[in-house]
Amino acid sequence: MLKVYAAKWCPHCTKTVDYLKSNKIEFEYIEIEEQSKKTIQKIIDVNGGDDWVVPTLEFNGKWRKGKIFNEIELHYELGQLGIK
Length: 84
What we know:
alpha+beta; Glutaredoxin; 39% helix
């Protein structure tokens, strides 16, 4: 299942979640600020090692770095992750 590491206060996270819901893509929402240091460190590592960036997505061991919401880019990158 697609995992979405996000923050409630993040507008790009909200838009990503809304996109997933409107396209009936199942996902697990994971509030980043409530995670263990180990999980947060993994998100930091995925995003280049400086800090965590959301929304960061993971699907079957493949990662999409956190970035601003862009519907066309998100659609394409979900396909690259194997999500139809």
